Protein 1
Amino acid sequence: MSAVLPAGIEAAAGLALMHARCFDEAWDAKTFQTLLRMPGAFAHVAWTHAEPAEPLGFVVWRRAGDDAEVISIGVLPGQRGRRLGRRLLRTVILAATREGARRLVLEVAEGNAPARTLYAQMRLTEVGRRRGYYRKAHGAAEDALIMARDL
Ligand SMILES: CC(C)(COP(=O)(O)OP(=O)(O)OC[C@H]1O[C@@H](n2cnc3c(N)ncnc32)[C@H](O)[C@@H]1OP(=O)(O)O)[C@@H](O)C(=O)NCCC(=O)NCCS
């Protein structure tokens, strides 16, 4: 069992710890502070119901005009495949709709199969491509797909 709750700037250090476990290129707490100070920026964290609660995953997103953009989403390695990613995205969809956004947008590396499956399941479709946008560990470039859905 888990709960997805909104998080504020005080969560920056915890978000950085989770991000480091989810991505090769870690963002530090200062980066999350800067992100969360941007107008229209929000974070949500999935927590266990244990006492004390342990974080399981996060999403940071931003409303800009008609768009809600997912800036980063991650579920801790040992917690994947339990539909937390789906719950986090659903939370964004509900909150962004409430905030008046009309479209959900995000970017994903072309080779990120788990994320692409999740996004397809949530009815996001490819609307653009940035060629060679990501640099992989061994130096090869990878395209970023821009995906979107109406809200
Ligand atoms: C992408 C990510 C957030 C998905 O989180 P998750 O909690 O494992 O996802 P869910 O359990 O909600 O899975 C939703 C669907 O995605 C698909 N999926 C999840 N993991 C998958 C995998 N390893 N391979 C293929 N498909 C997968 C499944 O179809 C699943 O649906 P199902 O439960 O009906 O089978 C997680 O893998 C992650 O944190 N990855 C590292 C960070 C990252 O890449 N973030 C996205 C950057 S754009």
Protein 2
Amino acid sequence: MNQTIDLILSHRSIRQFTHDPIEPQQLDLILQAAQAAASSSFLQANSIMRVTDPLIRQQLAELAGPQPYVAQAAEFLVFCADFHRHRQIVPAAHTGFVEQLLIGAIDGALMAQNALLAAQSLGLGGVYIGGIRNHPAEVVALLGLPRHVIPLFGLCLGHPSQQPEQKPRLPQAMVVHENRYPERLDEALLADYDRQIQDYYQARSSNNKVQTWSSQIAGTLGKEARPFMDAFLQSQGFNLK
Ligand SMILES: Cc1cc2nc3c(=O)[nH]c(=O)nc-3n(C[C@H](O)[C@H](O)[C@H](O)COP(=O)(O)O)c2cc1C
């Protein structure tokens, strides 16, 4: 083990923050860390919107849930896939491909994880906010995002005022497969994990509930997943060819 791995393995999302700001030098390091991530074809197809206006923050907090920590966190960053910059530089650029949507989403996530890890290494905490995709067109309008730019998710950052228990992950044997995808699900491993997650939800210090992982995913996947997304992407110039 080393400090980097210790830090990665101690991850938990933080949703409660003190009122302390993040020092500008620290924020700069976090943003540098984000930009240091690898970049598909070196396209650098992302922008980060730093939302400092309290009114815009409040509206984003409402649109995302409501999720009050979006307004309360010291910093709120919105990671975007951005092909607008390329089109300004190369007006004849071919954009709107599904592949480019993947690039924007993948590279944006790599940047964000670098940012969160950098923040955590400085004693800060944070949580991603996919909830901003509940109302993507409103987010575009609020942030003045041009066509060919889409908001992927937000990231709240600040000084933690909670120390939640860590959420256990699936056993490695259910996630990592060697050479060939397994023919069937390992029911025994899943049953163990369901018990582990049920114990975690029952024992944790806030928001206790009686739920297994299987019942949780059945609930989430029993609903439609933002079915308006296709039309939204088209309207932002991601024609998905
Ligand atoms: C892309 C992404 C979007 C997320 N969106 C939200 C969100 O809108 N609100 C929230 O409270 N947590 C959100 N989360 C945090 C997850 O709920 C959390 O990572 C998961 O439950 C595991 O908990 P942990 O991060 O504490 O280990 C998001 C996580 C990811 C990766």
